[in-house]
Every structure is written in structure tokens, then in C-alpha cells.
From TrEMBL:
It is an enzyme of class 6 (ligase). This is Aspartate--tRNA ligase. ATP binds at residues 225-227, 234, 475, 527-530. Keywords: Aminoacyl-tRNA synthetase, ATP-binding, Cytoplasm, Ligase, Nucleotide-binding, Protein biosynthesis. Belongs to the class-II aminoacyl-tRNA synthetase family. Type 1 subfamily. One of its GO terms (molecular function) is aspartate-tRNA ligase activity. It comes from Meiothermus hypogaeus. Homodimer. Its EC number is 6.1.1.12. Catalyzes the attachment of L-aspartate to tRNA(Asp) in a two-step reaction: L-aspartate is first activated by ATP to form Asp-AMP and then transferred to the acceptor end of tRNA(Asp). Its main location: cytoplasm. SUPFAM superfamilies: Class II aaRS and biotin synthetases, GAD domain-like, Nucleic acid-binding proteins. L-aspartate binds at residues 179, 225, 441, 482.
Length: 580
RNA sequence: GCUCCGGUGGUGUAGUUGGUUAACAUACCCGCCUGUCACGUGGGAGAUCGCGGGUUCAAGUCCCGUCCGGAGCGCCA
């Protein structure tokens, strides 16, 4: 008595067949002398009917939602007036001959049946959902999300295999490397007092595979970073990691956008037109105030630095940058104040404003606006102008945050998938705290060779061969061409304040590898959880991870992290220090 | 570490300027019902309103603290 097919796959063509179904009771309708059971498995639900004269009627009377049952019965077409058009199995039903209870079930803590009959699931507090993740995972939404994730990964394997990529696994127990994110440490039993670190990414391993001549590598790799969590970030996450030899930045970008188009075609049936826009870092920062702009709406920032320069409005006259956002609405005072709070949280000194009413600026800083503004920037009746003045980076980023918020509030965001590449990132940025230059991407990123002469004297101007892959305002990938010459890598380490001794100690194996004849190479890593979340239309990556961590980094199903026995600690030579 | 938001039967919500039996839906249990498909219908059980303290004649409601959860800042090469 093995299952003959999935409940959700029954169709009119099966009418007259005897079938064996196994699954969960999604819902039971007891009409007194007649009982209907919606039986569910991963493919969907089908209506099972138990007649009062059937031997299985007593069992059917006993079952409850979420019980696991095996039904043997005959498929029958429903009369036209009894077809349920909402179900893909709605043209048939199964007349039960026998019904065997395989497992009884407690009443679930929250409803899970609605999604399976094509309705909206009731929203349930996430804390309750995560505590009962097994029940939660039964819901249609998570079934759909995890199957979408699988389709994406299967498409990645097909595409990259066809492109000649070789999948290679790299170690999870590896060595701690300085900077970047905080490492997760794993104590060594064989060498007490020494630690492995879980990899933040397979970066160095894949570079060494390139030196070893594998030419095209990829891996769906788990990565670990011990930092605080967000809706789109958790400590163990999945990357699609790849690396290619003898390539340029353009080769990697072109390949990856073809991959993205293939995935969307395979997983969602969505057609994308290539190539995706390529914008420089300077351009996206100036136009959108973000290095991961959401291109699903316009509302671009504009520049008014020159208009105010040397003018009577002191606050703007000497500002490095004055950015302007023209909002197609007359914003009320209260809303502007909320937006100002947002701008300030991103480092703006304030958010100046004025409205254009009856052909004149009114309110806010209206009387300080020079006539030149309207010559430079188109502003129409009934619009609001918002300004941020200050250092360039703070000005654009804070007004960029306002842009994003207004996009949401004014419902300007169009549906769809807006991919783009951000290129020409600066190689280095100034670290105020450490009072020195630090890398923007990672220390193995190649400078743009045209800018090499600037490296020591004007490091801030040096562009990197680094690129980010952005989808709907979210960074879903990033990569770079790597340094493949030992001398240049050592020069970078020096610039970053990593002395020869430290470089040798921490990255000796890399420098050694580079001295054995390394090919020019580069690659990229995608944040797979984020990418899938976007495709699934979810705001949180927890919706596309089977067993996610909560905001506090806890895995609520097993209760990790948890204390361990004294003997386990002793085995690795550790003792817990009292909380100071 | 910080800011903001939330916590009311199993679940999802309501609860007015503080006012006495904490409401509704659904789920659950029992009864009736042969064509339902969120079946219908009658009945029942189920909440010391996250926890502690304070103000008050009176606190789900106001105040303070605390715990838990979420969004964000810092952090995340």
C-alpha cells in the first residue's frame, strides 16, 4: 500500500483510478452523515469524501486537523456544479474506501491551512512562529519560499556547470584573519588554547584555487560573521561564491548578469533585458545618495552647491555640498520634521525646505533661496524642495535616506526587478577612528591600474576594480579583480598599515601563493539569502531560511546558543570567566 | 551600547478622557445536520491584560523599572 501520487497532483485524467494518498488533514467538514477531508501534502490539497456506509466512516469521524493519514480510494469527477475552481484538484474528489490514522496530532498553535487553499495566511507573531518552526514550515508560504530557493540554486548549478565552472568545497574550520567582521571562534581540542575561525567568506581559498589553475570556481558556501543582526543579515548566511582567471571586470559583470537573467527566467518565468545599467560610485551617490540605489523610482537628488556658494544664506554659502530633492507634493510641516529626524540620524545638520505655491517659494528657507535655483533646477507649482548642506558624503547619504523614505511614503516604487552594477568604487576610505586609510572592499582588491601612480600620494582618489550588484535597493553581490602580483599586494599591506611581519604571519600563505605564478583573476559573491528574499517578495531573509536565527542571534528551535558541560570545556582547555 | 515600536484567552485583534461582568473573530470540546469546500447550527470551556513597583477611591489604560520580540543606528573587509 504505497502512495501512488501526491494529493496536489490529482487531476480529472485520474478519474476512475484507485489511488493511495498519504498526508496531513488540512481541514475536515463534518456534515453529520457525510464527512469531507481536505488531505494535504507538499503538492497541495485534494478533497476526500467518507460516506456513512463506508467502513472508514468511524475513523473519518475521529480524525482532526494535522493528523497524518493514509487514504485508499477511488478518484471521481465531480458534477459540474460541485467543482471547486479555487483548487487545482477541484474537478475531482477521492471516495475513501479505507482511512488509516498514521499519527495523531496536537492542535497546532496557529492556523496553517489557509495558504493551501489559496487564501492569505493569517499573520502570526514571529516569535510564536519561530518557537514553533516545524508548524510554521508547514505553511504554504514557507513551502513556496524554500522551493523557490531550491530552484534558484538548481539554476545556478546548471548555468555555471554549462559555463565550465568547477564546484569546490573549502574548509569551514579555518584561520582567523584580522579586520573585517568579528570571527566566530572554535576552540581546538588537539591544541588547547588555539582556535579555528569559521570563514567570513572563502575569499583566500578561492584565490589560491585560481593560482592552482582551476580557472573557474564556484561554491554555494556558508559564511559566518559575528555581528549584530538585521532583517537582511544573520550570523550564518549563504553566498554564491565564484572566481575566474584571466578575466576583466567586464567579463565577470557580463557573466553574472546573464546568470541573473537565467535564474529569473527559470525560477520565476521573468524576462530581463540585458545589459543592466552600470553606474559609477560617484554617480549613484550624487544621484541617489546611496551605493545601492533603488531604481524602481526616480526622485533623483540634484546639486545646488554653486547656487548657494558665497550667498547670503550662511549655512549653505560655504558648504562643501548642497543637495536638493524636489518632491512632487506639498509636504506638511509634520512630515518634513519626521524626514528631518531621519536625515539627522544619517549625519545631516538639518533638513531645509520650501514649498512652491502661487509661483513663489514659501515657508522654511524660502527667503534665502537665490533666484538662480530655479534656473538650474526644475521646480513646479505644488512641489516641496528639500535641502541638505554639509560634507559631500553626509549630504548625499542623508538626503538619499530621505529619498528612499519618500519613495515609500508617496508610493512611487514600481513593481519589478531593477538590477544595476555600481562600479569604480574608491579603493580606500579614511578611517576616522584609526586615523589611517582602510580598504573599502577588502585588502586583496586591485587598484585601477590607471590610478596606480596616485597610490601613495593621493590614496583617496584611487579607484578600485570593484563592483557591487544591486537589486531593488539592496546589495545582493559584490566583487573585485584581485591583486595577483606579490609586490603590489605587499605595497597594499604597507598602505593599510599591515607591516611585513604581520603580513607574513597572517597572509604568508597568500603571498607565498602569489609568488608561484598567479594568473590575473577576480570574482564575486552573491548574498543568496537576500537575493532569494527579493525574488520571493519577502522583507526578511528569515522567510527564505528554513531554520533562521532571531534578532538576538538565537536559534529558537534548539535553543542555541546554550551552555556546555564542564567536561566539554575542559576538553578544549577553556574555563568560563565570570561576568565582570 | 543606543533610538524607536510592540507584548490582552491557543491564534489574530478591539478595548474611548482611568470606571466596576475585559469584547469580537477564529481555533478547541460536546450535540444536531448527506454535497460541503473558511460548511451550517446550538451549547461549552478558555485571559490574574509579559513581569515588578508606583500614582489613584479605582489601572489593560497613566508613570518608573525590568524581561521578551521586532525595525533601525553603531557594527557588518
Amino acid at each position: 500500500m504505497r502512495r501512488t501520487l501526491y494529493c496536489g497532483n490529482l487531476r480529472e485524467q485520474h478519474a476512475g483510478e484507485k489511488v493511495v494518498l498519504e498526508g496531513w488533514v488540512n481541514r475536515r467538514r463534518d456534515l453529520g452523515g457525510l464527512i469531507f477531508i481536505d488531505l494535504r501534502d507538499r503538492e497541495g490539497i485534494v478533497q476526500v469524501i467518507a460516506n456513512p456506509d463506508s467502513t472508514c466512516f468511524t475513523e473519518a469521524d475521529r480524525v482532526r486537523p494535522e493528523w497524518v493519514v493514509r487514504v485508499v480510494g477511488v478518484v471521481r469527477s465531480r458534477p459540474a456544479d460541485q467543482v471547486n475552481p479555487k483548487l487545482s484538484t477541484g474537478a475531482v474528489e477521492v471516495v475513501a474506501e479505507s482511512l488509516e490514522v498514521l499519527a495523531e496530532a496536537k492542535t497546532p498553535p496557529f492556523p496553517i491551512d489557509a495558504g493551501w487553499r489559496g487564501e492569505q495566511d493569517q499573520s502570526v507573531n514571529e516569535e510564536v512562529r519561530l518557537k514553533n518552526r516545524v508548524v510554521d514550515l508547514r505553511r504554504k508560504r514557507l513551502h513556496d519560499n524554500l522551493r523557490l530557493r531550491h530552484k534558484v540554486i538548481a539554476a545556478i548549478y546548471r548555468f555555471l556547470d554549462a559555463e565550465g565552472f568547477i564546484g569546490v568545497e573549502t574548509p569551514y574550520l579555518t584561520r582567523s584573519t584580522p579586520e573585517g567582521a568579528r570571527d566566530f571562534l572554535v576552540p581546538s581540542r588537539l591544541e588547547p588554547g588555539h582556535f579555528y575561525a569559521l570563514p567570513q567568506s572563502p575569499q583566500l581559498f578561492k584565490q589560491m584555487l585560481m593560482v592552482a589553475g582551476y580557472d573557474r570556481y564556484f561554491q554555494i558556501a556558508r559564511c559566518f560573521r559575528d555581528e549584530d543582526l538585521r532583517a537582511d543579515r544573520q550570523p550564518d548566511f549563504t553566498q554564491l561564491d565564484m572566481e575566474l582567471s584571466f578575466v576583466t571586470q567586464e567579463d565577470i559583470i557580463a557573466l553574472n548578469e546573464r546568470l541573473a537573467a537565467y535564474i529569473l527566467q527559470e525560477a520565476l518565468g521573468v524576462e530581463l533585458s540585458l545589459p543592466f545599467p552600470r553606474l559609477t560610485y560617484a554617480e549613484v551617490m550624487n544621484r541617489y545618495g546611496s551605493d545601492k540605489p533603488d531604481l524602481r523610482f526616480g526622485l533623483e537628488l540634484q546639486d545646488a552647491t554653486e547656487v548657494f556658494k558665497g550667498g547670503e544664506f550662511r549655512a549653505f554659502a560655504s558648504a562643501e555640498t548642497v543637495k536638493v530633492l524636489v518632491v512632487p507634493a506639498l509636504l506638511p510641516r509634520k512630515e518634513i520634521e519626521e524626514l528631518e529626524a531621519l536625515a539627522k540620524s544619517k549625519g545631516a545638520a538639518g533638513l531645509a525646505w520650501a514649498r512652491l505655491e502661487n509661483s513663489a517659494f514659501t515657508g522654511g528657507i524660502a527667503r534665502f533661496i537665490p533666484p538662480g535655483l530655479r534656473e538650474k533646477i526644475a521646480i513646479s507649482e505644488g512641489q516641496t524642495v528639500l535641502f541638505v548642506a554639509g560634507p559631500w558624503r553626509k549630504a548625499v547619504e542623508s538626503l538619499g535616506a530621505v529619498r528612499l523614505e519618500l519613495g515609500k511614503r508617496l508610493k512611487l516604487i514600481e513593481p519589478g526587478y531593477k538590477f544595476l552594477w555600481v562600479v569604480d568604487f574608491p579603493l580606500l576610505e579614511w578611517d576616522e577612528e584609526a586615523n589611517r586609510w582602510t580598504y573599502m572592499h577588502h585588502p586583496f582588491t586591485s587598484p585601477n591600474l590607471e590610478d596606480l601612480p596616485l597610490l601613495e600620494n593621493n590614496p583617496g582618489q584611487v579607484r578600485a576594480y570593484a563592483y557591487d550588484f544591486v537589486l531593488n535597493g539592496s546589495e545582493i553581490g559584490g566583487g573585485s579583480i584581485r591583486i595577483h602580483r606579490r609586490d603590489l599586494q605587499e605595497r597594499m599591506f604597507t598602505l593599510l598599515g599591515i607591516g611585513p611581519q604581520e603580513a607574513q604571519e597572517k597572509f604568508g600563505f597568500l603571498l607565498e601563493a602569489l609568488s608561484y605564478g598567479a594568473p590575473p583573476h577576480g570574482g564575486i559573491a552573491w548574498g543568496l539569502d537576500r537575493f532569494v528574499a527579493h525574488l520571493a517578495g519577502e522583507d526578511s531573509i528569515r522567510e527564505v531560511i528554513a531554520f533562521p536565527k532571531n534578532k538576538e542571534g538565537k536559534e529558537t528551535l534548539t535553543g542555541a546558543p546554550a551552555p556546555v558541560d564542564e567536561t566539554q570545556l575542559a576538553a578544549v582547555g577553556l574555563a568560563i570567566r565570570g561576568n565582570a
